[in-house]
Design a protein that fits this description.
single chain; 330 residues; Rossmann fold; three-stranded mixed sheet; 11 helices; 41% helix; binds nicotinamide-adenine-dinucleotide; binds uridine-5'-diphosphate
Amino acid sequence: MTILVTGGLGFIGSHTAIELIESGHEVIILDNLINSKLEVLDKLFEITGKRPIFYQIDVTQQAALEEVFQSHRFDGAIHFAGLKAVGESVAKPLEYYYNNLVSTMVLSKLCLKYGVNKFVFSSSATVYGDQISPMREDMPLQRTTNPYGETKAMSERILMDTASVNPDFSVCLLRYFNPVGAHDSGLIGEDPNGIPNNLMPFVTKVAKKELDTLSVFGDDYDTIDGSGVRDYIHVVDLARGHLAAIEKMGPGVSIYNLGTGRGTSVLELVEAFTRVNNVVVPYEVVARRDGDIATSYADPTKAEEELGWSAQKDIEDMVGDAWRFEQQNK
Ligand code: NAD
Ligand code: UDP
């Protein structure tokens, strides 16, 4: 298949491009480089031996995007392009609503116009809100606590409504839990601009002594050790989930959790990082972070039953690969 990958130079998009290329698919990448670097394209070539066609385009710009649709015939689109920093979305709601919603609408409009009938969307476990884990796909969408989360829930609704009146248009909503880790070549991984918001990139910066201390946000949750519990998933497993989705998605709308089904606390993750990598991660416990919930992990059985996909890598792989990337690339 020929697959359009928006946001394909970003963290998850680049790993997915590799899996698609290595499975024989043709990949065309669009990215405006707002949160990624052009050199990732060279890394993709180094890893796969193929250089995907790349357009530096903002997916909200319909005219520019339409030129790409006129030049290629796509079998499907995977839509990763989006802004993703929760805290920044609170400070800049309009930027987040505009970028994340308009990109989804413009891309789906052109897919309909040009008969591109498979649309895979990057959603998030945040749409489950604070319901009791394990999260299942048939749980109701909840109001999220920030504009970023709202853009995911709204995009899901926009795509569901669009699919319901366009029977040939298939939509697959993939709800990611906590993507971490890096490609085992150590060539690509998570490389956020500035001080990271997420746990794993913060831990790697502390381990590398670029930041002094990890703040553990709360140790009084009702969890195994009081710190927050999440379902960390290796980015290569996540990428393979997209490959399974685009190859096997059925008609209409399908929704899948992409998680391991296992919860890991902040303190457990720090312990695993220290043990596997033999490196110290100084931390201090501070107050809870606003908007955080105690526990979030997936019920991943639907993806396993319907897509034949399940996560294979464990927390040791995740902390090891994250550290290898950090050491090799910065
Ligand atoms: P990322 O920032 O590394 O990748 C997103 C890419 O999209 C970047 O390369 C960025 O330059 C590009 N981009 C953003 N807006 C664009 C636009 N208007 N036009 C063209 N390119 C644009 O993020 P990621 O971690 O790879 O996330 C990919 C998707 O998955 C995002 O939609 C994100 O919201 C979603 N998601 C991520 C996580 C996570 O924890 N990483 C969890 C759940 C969902
Ligand atoms: N966390 C933390 N310190 C940090 C960043 C995150 O203790 O510097 C905790 C956070 O409270 C949550 C978990 O790590 O329990 C995962 O947070 P992250 O921001 O990575 O992902 P989220 O699940 O919030 O999207």
